[in-house]
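ugh ok fine here u go
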Amino acid sequence: MSSPPPSPLFSRSSSGSSGHGYIPLGVPRVANLLVKMRRHRAKAKSHHIESASGPEPLTHPALRDEDAVSPRKVPLDEDTTFVCRDGVDVAKLLRAVRASLYQKAVDIGANVLVDEQWSCTICGPRHRSDGTFRVYVHYSARGARSERGDPQRPVALENARDVPGLMTIVNRID
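structure:
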């Protein structure tokens, strides 16, 4: 059995009676460490793919008229994490999350979603040996009543950024 390697927190020179002394962590060393950590974090986030519906909530054209929906609107939101393999089809994931949100709206008596907004972050498989993508989807909307039907599709799908390939959803975490 071999002894563990020397700790980087101990100095290499023998000082004191024990033969090991602590390296003082001064302000310059801590500042250098923080700069290195910030650079590493920036490099790690460069492998993220982010997309969003836009800065403002959107409503489907058929429901934009003031007479089209009731004045009472209930805010709803859904955060879902997907684990996908071989590719990411953001439009399909958005449809799934919107369907969950629509079901919440139906449960409280609403029949349409208005003022919709979504964001999606794809974290690539850079450090995962299994090659999976972790996809974070946030979808918010307001449930309302209307005589017109709900379009049953997310807004601003043209803003969705995908990872090419045949997507397999391995796990869904609500």
